[in-house]
Amino acid sequence: MDKHWCFKKARWDVFRDKFEASSEDWVVPRYWTADTIEYQCKSFYKDLEMALSASCPRITPSLGGPPRPPKWLTTELAAQRTQVRVAYKQARETMEDLWTAYRDLRRVYKRSIANAKKAQWTKFTSDVSNLEGMAKLARSLLKDKDACMGLMSSGQQKTSPDEAVGLLFDIFFPGCKNSQPDPIPIKPLAQDSELDTEVISEHKVKQTLDSFGPLKAAGPDGLKPIALQAMGPKSRCRLTYLYRASLTLGYIPKVWRKARVVFIPKVGKKHYTQ
Q1: Which residues 6+ apart lie within 8 Å of 28 measured at CB?
Q2: Do residues 87 and 98 touch, judged by C-beta distance below 8 A?
Q3: What residues does each domain of the chain span?
């Protein structure tokens, strides 16, 4: 299991000092382009993670309490498991040739497990009709990075994100096209403009960051709002310039485009064209 930042045990004074030290020699680029934004964004997060590494421990999330038996493990399967274990013990401890019987029992047991898991998964996904059920489904899928939603169309499973999105659009938004807007031409940008400094100031950035709950759920980068709230003025200045350049150029860094999205249809509503 991957380790996560333990923000509750972080030493935020150390984090602030480390991040401020790495931002001490930072110089505002004279001109901003898309490449400049990408480079500055990567540099910002690199320094932030280095400061976190020096001040915030990583822990393995605790599952809490003894493991519960899986729901697919029925009484019949438990009895089969006992038979397999007894057969294995007898075959190992006796001189008789009982390995064939043990292998036959184990083969039947494994087949029963596969059928039970399939039946339980079908029931679990079919019963999802509210936010709580969707949250459980999302948690179960996130345990396996290679897991997919299992969307089916014409008997074929959709495995890639593009295929899944296309199928969801066809089902819930028939006739709609998932078109991308024309790219905005990127031109060099002067260091400051009055509009940018009025709309995005350091004070407004700090005020906005402080408005979030410190320990709200993290995004794909694993960072919670408290990490950005603990920044000093020099580090926050770097982030402010990134926001200004992104707004003025109409370009969003790639790392900011990543998000976890859960498609939750309303119960009883087949499509959303009305």
Answers
A1: 191, 241
A2: yes
A3: 7-58+166-177+186-256, 75-141
DSSP 189: B
* Burial class (CB within 10 angstroms; exposed 0-12, middle 13-18, buried 19+) of 200: buried
- Give the tens place of pLDDT for each residue, 36-58: 999 999 999 999 999 999 999 99
- Say what the pLDDT of residue 230 is: 96
Whether 243 and 35 have beta carbons less than 8 Å apart is answered as: no
Measure the CA–CA gap between 168 and 149, rounded to whole angstroms. Answer: 11
Give the Cβ contact number of residue 158 at 10 Å. Answer: 18
What one-character DSSP code corresponds to residue 231? Answer: -
Q: Are 129 and 143 a contacting pair, CB within 8 Å?
A: no
For 54-95, how does the pLDDT look when each residue is reduced to its tens digit (9 = 90+)? Answer: 999 998 877 666 778 888 888 899 999 999 999 888 888 876
DSSP notation for 2-64: --EE-GGG--HHHHHHHHHHHTTT----SSB-HHHHHHHHHHHHHHHHHHHHHH--EEPPP--
What is the C-alpha separation between 139 and 71, in angstroms, rounded? 16
Tell me which amino acid residue 6 is.
C
- For 228, list phi and psi in degrees, rounded to 5: -75, -30
Letter for the amino acid at 72?
W
Neighbours of 149 (CB within 10 A): 18
* Nearest CA-CA partner of 212 in 194, 224, 200: 224
